[in-house]
Amino acid sequence: MLEETTRSVQCDFMSQLLEGKTALVLGVANRWSLAYAIAQAFRREGARLLLTYQGERLQKTVEELGASLGAERVFECDVTRDEDLAKLTETSERLDAVVHSIAFANQADLARPFVETSRDGYLLAQNVSAYSMVAVARATAPLMTSGGAMLTLTYLGSTRVVTNYNVMGVAKAALEASVRYLAADLGPQNIRVNAISAGPVKTAAARGIKDFSKVLEAVEAHAPLRRNVTPGEVADLAVFLASDLGRGVTGDVLFADAGYHIMGL
Ligand code: NAP
Q1: The model scores a pTM over 0.90
Q2: I need a surface site. Which of 103, 139, 168, 213 has the fewest CB within 10 A?
Q3: Which numbered atom of ligand 1 lies nearest the CA of 30?
Q4: Which CATH code for domain 18-256?
């Protein structure tokens, strides 16, 4: 039995890891987006790609990026709109992987003390950054007729206090808990649900966090690998989780952060 498992994994290494799979990737805004790095890696590994973008402002950019990746469809999906979420169910006949790479909070809530977070700001961050994962999972699970993998992106600020991460840290805590409950609900359909906790990467979303460059400096100084993680490294972990190599992993948070999260003083 052990021999058989080892042999099948070796075979997978020789071919493209996502060959024959169809992946829906939500959250490409530009070429710096983690979602774009993941889409590139999925394409490299032979996946059919479907991409979404939030609104008209991003349409041209994401369509161009999608064309460069040979994406089969690029369409609008604002995760706060139920009519857009309903469209996800008609996306494709079958899906094997879904990547949720979406977050938003008011900039003001990422700069002032957490205790001053308004009700509206708190609910907005939860709605876009955490609840949307539940809604996306509900809309896409029926398309995973042969099982599949759902992934989301999270950050260490969910379990540790990271200066200025504030309301987003609380939303990421809810997101990670949602991953566990979704994994338990969808596991019987052989749908796996996991989160990747990425180290800091310079993207549009990260630029919204006050003093973000200090976070990058702290990781470079203290992470075991003495450097920051690259988008490609985050994307390769996504490939693992979406591929059959990750078939025994669900409900988990896996770190791609150059090891920073293990450090104490
Ligand atoms: P990004 O390129 O700015 O991606 C965030 C995406 O969320 C954008 O495409 C954004 O669209 C989209 N979005 C926001 N509100 C939305 C809505 N209502 N409906 C649909 N899409 C919406 O930044 P990123 O760093 O790659 O972020 C991707 C994920 O990685 C996020 O969950 C983030 O928290 C997580 N993450 C990032 C880091 C990091 O350091 N960069 C570290 C750990 C985890 P718009 O541009 O139109 O707002």
Answers
A1: yes
A2: 213
A3: 2
A4: 3.40.50.720
